[in-house]
Hints:
The protein has a nine-stranded mixed sheet, with helices on both faces. The chain contains 13 helices and 15 strands. The longest helix is centred in the N-terminal third of the chain and has 25 residues, at 16-40. The chain folds into three domains: 16-88; 94-187, Beta-Lactamase (2-Layer Sandwich), CATH 3.30.450; 196-428, P-loop containing nucleotide triphosphate hydrolases (Rossmann fold, 3-Layer(aba) Sandwich). By secondary structure, it is of the alpha/beta class.
Amino acid sequence: MTTMHQVPDLTSASGEAIVEDSLRAAAVELAGRVTEHLVTHPEESADPDAVGQLVDQLLEERARTALVQGTRGTVDEPRLRRLVLDHVLGLGPVEELLVEPGVQNIHITGNDPAVVDFGGGRREHRAPVVATDDELVALVQRAAARAPGGERRFDVSAPILSMELPGGERLSAVMPGVAARPTLTIRRHPTQHLRLRDLARSGMVDQTVQELLRAAVRARLNLLISGATNSGKTTLLRAMLGTLEGERLITVEDAFELGLHRSADTDLDVQALQGRPANVEGIGEVALAELVRAALRMCPDRVIVGETRGPETIALLNAMSMGSDGSMSTIHASSSQQVFAKLAAYCAQSPERLTASATASLVGAALHLVVHIDTTPEGERYVASVREVVGAEGEQVISNEIYLRTPDASSGGLVCAPSGMVADRLDRVGYSGRGWA
């Protein structure tokens, strides 16, 4: 560890961009030396403090070498140290984007400029985080090797990766061969969970639908939240669950996004379950459908499935119809009415191969409400529809739209009174349904 190395002169380059490139190059060089050391001392790689001490030693050695060579200048050593640690323990330069205030999503394609999404239609470009496409693949592979739930694969035989980062963010990546170029997307969840009142202030929910949703949770109605990708389905689900007190929830997700098990400001008893793909030998997969069935044996007050989009749909609907009232999930759909077609497709594609009439009967018996989120042309999210499930007739699910809001309106209205069991349950929790049109 005492070998002398030529040290780049970070102050000799003119221009802020060149200085930044030099700083990053120095970080990469130092990170490479740290990695070489950890290969021969693997017991230290799991200890961030030991890695930090090693980086400090290298920085001190670097400073001494620069002094001997007469090239010592003004170097931002705290930032250099952070960049080295980010490369060794994290996602390298991507870490700087992750800590940027207000960032919701990060999109990276090869060595192109990164796209940072702040929500509400606001997107900005940042400097490329890697010099080549191959470097992005290597960066994702390092992250996959350190996945919180155990090592994951990202190679030509497993070209699609979806995993949770240590900070709770969700990483999705696609290899070249499946995509034209390596692609990385990171969804960053808010550090503080938003409540329904916060969504009301942002305009996502108005007073009418906020009261309806609060009453639906108290009444233990089973519901699905629908919408497009990145429409705020998980945000609304999390906010609705935030109205609960003292209940036992079992959450089932393919990657921990809800984050309720990490929340310190709640008295909920949350047990979080996460699916797992098969390992290198093709064994060890844990499917969401299996986890939903396991959740029913864990005495839950409610079963919460982060998103249903496959064979777990039947298990979820069975859970809803077997006494786990108040259960919730999200689903991709373009309208509240289209949800029933998506459920029928998922059930038909499952191993059970349910017929359309059998699916309609199951949905009619299990589901109570569908809440749909839409976006305005400006990118603002809002709850556009709440639909009550009345029952089933043949292959059709019978439903009534009880709340509607148009894109150009600041608020919506109740357009139809609920009926049957939904009306009875809402009435028992004191919901008056003011303002029926």
